[in-house]
Automatic annotation (TrEMBL):
GO terms for molecular function: calmodulin binding. It comes from the Eukaryota. This is IQ motif containing F6. It comes from Prolemur simus. SMART domains: IQ. InterPro entries: IQ_motif_EF-hand-BS (IPR000048), IQCF (IPR039887), P-loop_NTPase (IPR027417). The lineage of its organism: Eukaryota, Metazoa, Chordata, Craniata, Vertebrata. Pfam families: IQ.
């Protein structure tokens, strides 16, 4: 009977010890899994941040390209308007000169620029 009690006590102690070993092993495994999960989450966050930065960089490049194209188009439009206005001014000036020459007399002349001097020969005929 005493040996039976000793055996039962030994079995209880052994099962308690095996339970402690199993729980410790499971705790180590759970902690290892937790560390791996934390590392994986941090890697996913880094990859997400890299993708976000890349998308932002691409968006910025596209926006700058759009801005540059718009600036070029606006510059072309402004230049075209300027050239039209200049052409209109030249037409008005030539018509005005023609009109002035017809009403006030005829201005004939020629000029040459030589070195740093201007030679001017003007002949005015009054009608």
């Amino acid at each position: 009977m005493a040996t039976q009690n000793l055996e039962k006590a030994a079995i209880k102690i052994q099962s308690w010890w095996r339970g402690n070993l199993v729980r410790r092993t499971l705790l180590h495994a759970a902690l290892g899994a937790w560390v791996i999960q934390c590392w994986w989450r941090s890697m996913q966050a880094k990859m997400l941040e890299q993708r976000r930065r890349l998308a932002l960089r691409l968006y910025t490049c596209q926006e700058w390209a759009v801005v540059k194209v718009q600036a070029q188009v606006r510059m072309w439009q402004a230049r075209r308007r300027f050239l039209q206005a200049r052409q209109a001014a030249c037409v008005i000036q030539s018509h005005w000169r023609w009109h002035a020459s017809q009403t006030r007399g005829l201005i004939r002349g020629r000029y040459e620029v030589r070195a740093s001097r201007l030679e001017l020969d003007i002949e005015i005929l009054m009608a």
